[in-house]
Each structure stands twice: as structure tokens, then as C-alpha cells.
Amino acid sequence: MSEILILKEFKKNLISFVDELIDQFPSEGDLVILRIYFSDQCEIKEVMESFTQYLNKDDNIIKKNIEERNDSFFLNHNTLFENVIDKTKIIHFKKIWRSPQLDQEDKETIWKWVDSFVFLSDKYAKNKTS
Asked: CA-to-CA distance for 62 and 21, rounded, in angstroms?
């Protein structure tokens, strides 16, 4: 898969993920801002590269937290894309993760979305090195 196709898929998945969060948390205005940002304002390549760097920092501790379904991924890191988006405008996943609106099935769905971002990030990184 080419770099362009990977980035398009990443962007499509990000927007779909945020759309699902908006459906679940309609009063969370920052989600709408995040959706607009991902769909119209950001350089998706910049988001991908920042996310890839974020995943692989500190001896891949973030990736390990994701693989182990360790809640600290959401509870100890304020945002999923903390290096890319203005922190004053971004949704805080800790708040969502602790919300009583999320049941275990919802949390597993979020983990699967994160898995898809990791998969595409890994694919992107491999594509860049080959």
C-alpha cells in the first residue's frame, strides 16, 4: 500500500472514530472541533508522523500499554494526539474514559480503533523505510 493510501485510510479512520465519539458524547464540543480539524485543517502526514513518533518513544511504552489494554494509555496521557493539536482545544480522553456513559463494550471498541491507528502507523513507518 502506498504512503498516500495509508494516509487516506488513517484520515478516514480518524474521522470515523471521532464521529462515533460525537454520537456517544454529543455535548462534548471539543469533539466537533477535533473532527473539523482532522477533516479540513490538518496535514494528515504531520498527524501520522507525530502519532508514530509518540507510539515509539520511551522504548515503545505507549504501544505496550495499548497491546496490554492498560488504561494508563488514556488516564496518564491527556490526549491521543498530544503533539499535534492545540491542547486547549482538544478532547481529553481521560474524561471520556472515566465517563459512566462508557461500558466495557464501548471501551473495547475504542481499543480497536486505537489498534487500527497503530496498524496504519506501523505500515506507514515500514513504507517509509523501504
From this structure: 22
Positive/negative CA dihedral, 115, 117, 118, 122: positive
- Domain residues for the domain of 33 are 3-129
Rounded-to-integer distance, Cα 92 and Cα 25, Å: 12
DSSP, collapsed to helix, strand or coil, labels residue 56 as: helix
Q: How far is CA 128 from the centre of its chain?
A: 20
The answer to pTM > 0.90 is no
Residue 17: exposure state from Cβ atoms within 10 A (0-12, 13-18, ≥19): buried
**Concatenated DSSP letters for 8-35?**
HHHHHHHHHHHHHHHHH-TT-HHHHHHH
Number of domains present in the structure of the chain: 1
Cα–Cα distance measured from residue 125 to residue 8, given in angstroms and rounded to the nearest whole number: 15
Q: pLDDT tens digits for 66-105?
A: 999 999 888 876 556 665 565 555 556 778 888 999 999 9
